[in-house]
């Protein structure tokens, strides 16, 4: 089960990413390494792509954490006591046993091995593991937790 | 960049999975290993979850392939000549440099460390790398390739 990065994020400062986390993300470039470039054939026909990344800032110790609070929500003005306590698998916390990130981004332009995207929540230098064309998932009965509906009302 | 399975798929026969690939997938169980069970806290409040898996049947040689045809579509009655030639990153082919699968499934029941789900396209024994609560992605301007709209009309 070994992974090989197929590309890397070229993005703005961490500060800018953090500031825009709740505002639809930032603009950036996904640079696919030359040896994997062929795999991009036809990707420009998708308006959105799924970006699978390795959250490289997560430490070995953080990978042992199984219970979290969605701390980033304090950016929205919430107090710690107002945030739910969650298992990592019920959250999108970057802290988790396998720090794999999933982001759906808008693909605005492809220039050879460079993908210009909007909606990134990833830092400059984040290794990319995989890309997949995005198809909207259709289901009428999607339900999200109450805490989430309430807290996200501030976004 | 090492991965540790956090669970495993308990599912029906491969034959059944393949037969139902275009019919919304199969029912199965995701068994989360005891040591990671705590990470499930609150997951039952989501109707749907994102399942991130390691497509364990992909060989080292298949990980070098960058151009594919969506061969599974021959199940729908298409001839090989009717199928587009695609880069792996523009497809959801299991053949890709990092054989990571993403499936959105319906969570019908949680029983301790067992998650009963519907909509699986994974084989019995597939290692699970991560789970995340599913939030519907909202975008008005999602566009998918013409070939896909045409071919999927048979589903």
Structural descriptors:
homodimer, 155 residues, mainly beta, Elongation Factor Tu (Ef-tu), domain 3, TrmO-like_N (chains A, B), S-adenosyl-L-methionine (chains A, B), tRNA (N6-threonylcarbamoyladenosine(37)-N6)-methyltransferase TrmO (chains A, B), YaeB-like_sf (chains A, B), YaeB_N_sf (chains A, B)
Separation of the first and last Cα atoms of chain A: 38 Å
Q: What is the makeup of the main sheet of chain A?
A: 6 strands, antiparallel, barrel
Low-confidence region ranges of chain A:
none
Shape-level CATH architecture of the domain at 7-57 and 98-152 in chain A? Beta Barrel
User: What is the number of strand segments of chain A?
Assistant: 8
Tell me the overall shape of chain A. Answer: globular
CATH superfamily of the domain at 7-57 and 98-152 in chain A: YaeB-like
Main interface by residue count: A-B, 59 and 59 residues
Query: For the residues shown, what is the average pLDDT of chain A?
Result: 90
Q: Give me the secondary-structure category of chain A.
A: mainly beta
Q: Look at the structure and give the CATH class of the domain at 7-57 and 98-152 in chain A.
A: Mainly Beta
Number of helices of chain A: 2
Cα gyration radius of chain A (Å):
17 Å
Order of helices and strands of chain A: EHEEEEEEEH
Name the strands of the widest sheet of chain A in spatial order.
1-2-7-6-3-8
- CATH topology (level 3) name of the domain at 7-57 and 98-152 in chain A: Elongation Factor Tu (Ef-tu), domain 3
- Estimate the strand proportion of chain A: 25-35%
In which range does the helix fraction of chain A lie?
A: under 10%
Oligomer: homodimer
């Amino acid at each position: 089960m070994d992974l090989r990065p197929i590309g890397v994020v070229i993005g703005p400062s961490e500060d800018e990413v953090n500031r825009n986390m709740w505002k639809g993300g930032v603009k950036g470039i996904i640079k696919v390494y030359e040896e994997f470039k062929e795999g991009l054939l036809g990707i420009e026909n998708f308006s959105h792509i799924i970006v699978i990344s390795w959250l490289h800032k997560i430490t070995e110790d953080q990978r042992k954490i199984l219970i979290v609070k969605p701390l980033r929500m304090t950016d929205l003005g919430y107090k710690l006591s107002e945030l739910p306590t969650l298992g990592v698998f019920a959250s999108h916390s970057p802290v988790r046993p396998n720090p794999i990130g999933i982001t759906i981004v808008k693909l605005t332009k492809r220039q050879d091995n460079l993908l210009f995207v909007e909606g990134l929540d990833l830092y400059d230098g984040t290794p990319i593991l995989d890309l997949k064309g995005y198809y909207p998932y259709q289901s009428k009965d999607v339900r999200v937790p109450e805490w989430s509906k309430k807290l996200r009302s501030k976004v």
